[in-house]
Design brief:
54% strand, signal, 396 residues, 16-stranded antiparallel β-barrel, Porin, two-stranded antiparallel ribbon, Porin_dom_sf
Length: 396
């Protein structure tokens, strides 16, 4: 309740600054596009294509040299499992900047604060800040995007300016904001309960120079599921539905990343490891599992307006068995838990306001597809499939 009150207060302050004609800056983007797949359900459950709509309006207001208010309202339609029914506050925070020791800067942020994780989480809600329309799913699962993007709480970051570069540390704590898609992502359409918004913790340590970025990140979430009357969950080994009970999902995510820029080339690599503890949902269930993924990526600037990005990635939904789940009672293929992807993306800046982006992803497996807790036939149609996307972006 307190965090929501603060977010509302920040929004009122921004509106007041706009009406008073004070030091208020606006910018944003509108991205419209289309994605299609040869099989499975990343883009759509019924059919193999879907629209892409990404709209963001950002505002910032400097009260003085130490205090700034900033926020973004966004609307996103990105496949059946990542479509928002109404505009969402991606972040709305008050930043207080100070210096506690020589050659340093500290920032305290309060409100709905963005989480500094890996190379791209901080900017994944801004279309032109991504290397491709679809980020590497081995590290940035679209299914869990909003749980990682921001949280309602507080963040403290410190930047030390060394002779060779900048050493930064960020720690944040708050409450995750669960959207309408999360139940669909986790349990598909089998249940009608709701998820409690629980606490989250994030930490990030990185070192940056003009050419190099490297670091590690950590993120913890623990949403709890509250059943609705007559809830039933498919129990795959038996092949029938069983009554659902309250459940809890605990996920600890670890990231290690590096990025090096040299002339027209940018080389990136990231490793992710997730410890997942699932308790409840069906009587007697308690499951500990690990997820693992990595990608390597090369970006080449053909000119000041045209770039290409090539990427290879692996993702394992069950890291303990990278060959897949193999039991005589399991009715889904072994490759359901794995995904290997080779992709090529391009971005062309038509002019300072217009950009055209396109992706092609060749995928083997279904490891990152929804529903995340229970497989369905929609997510295991074919082992080898293609995912393509194109998007025209206007920024202002």
């Amino acid at each position: 309740m307190l965090s929501r009150l603060l977010i509302s207060s920040l929004a009122i302050m921004l509106c007041h600054a706009a009406s008073a004609g004070e030091k208020l800056d606006f910018d944003g983007f509108v991205g419209l596009g289309f994605m299609t797949e040869s099989a499975n359900n990343f883009a759509a459950v019924d059919g193999d294509s879907n629209e892409i709509v990404e709209i963001g309006l950002r505002a910032s207001y400097s009260l003085n040299e130490n205090i700034m208010f900033t926020g973004q309202i966004g609307l996103r339609r990105f496949g059946d499992f990542a479509t928002e029914k109404k505009p969402r506050i991606d972040y709305a925070q008050m930043n207080y900047t100070t210096s506690w020791w020589k050659n340093s800067e500290q920032v305290i942020s309060i409100g709905r604060v963005k989480n500094q994780l890996g190379l791209y989480n901080l900017a994944r809600d801004i279309t032109l800040s991504r290397p491709s329309i679809i980020l590497p799913q081995s590290a940035y699962l679209e299914l869990l995007r909003n749980l990682f993007l921001s949280s309602d709480g507080i963040a403290i970051s410190s930047h030390s300016y060394l002779k060779t570069g900048i050493l930064s540390a960020t720690l944040s704590a708050g409450q995750i904001k669960i959207d309408d898609n999360f139940n669909h992502v986790m349990l598909d359409e089998f249940t009608a309960g709701n998820w409690s918004e629980r606490s989250s913790i994030s930490a990030d340590l990185r070192y940056a120079t003009d050419a190099l970025i490297m670091g590690v990140s950590f993120h913890r979430i623990n949403p709890q599921y509250n059943t609705a009357p007559n809830d039933r969950i498919p129990f795959v080994p038996i092949g029938s539905n069983v009554p659902a009970i309250n459940g809890k999902l605990e996920m600890d995510s670890y990231f290690a990343f590096a990025q090096y820029t040299k002339n027209k080339f940018e080389f990136s690599a990231e490793y992710s490891y997730r410890e997942v503890d699932i308790t409840g949902f069906t009587p007697g269930q308690s499951l500990d599992r690990s997820m693992e993924g990595f990608y390597v990526q090369t970006k080449y600037l053909l000119s000041t307006s045209w770039s290409f990005t090539a990427r290879y990635e692996d993702f394992y939904r069950l890291a303990e068995n990278k060959n897949g789940v193999q039991t005589p009672f399991f009715t889904f293929p072994d490759w359901y838990n794995n995904a290997r992807t080779v992709s090529l993306s391009t971005a062309y800046n038509i002019n300072p306001h217009w950009t055209l982006m396109a992706d092609v992803h060749l995928v083997k497996g279904s490891g990152f597809l929804a529903p995340f807790a229970t497989p369905t036939l929609d997510s295991t149609e074919k082992q080898n499939w293609t995912l393509s996307a194109i998007q025209l972006i206007y920024s202002f």
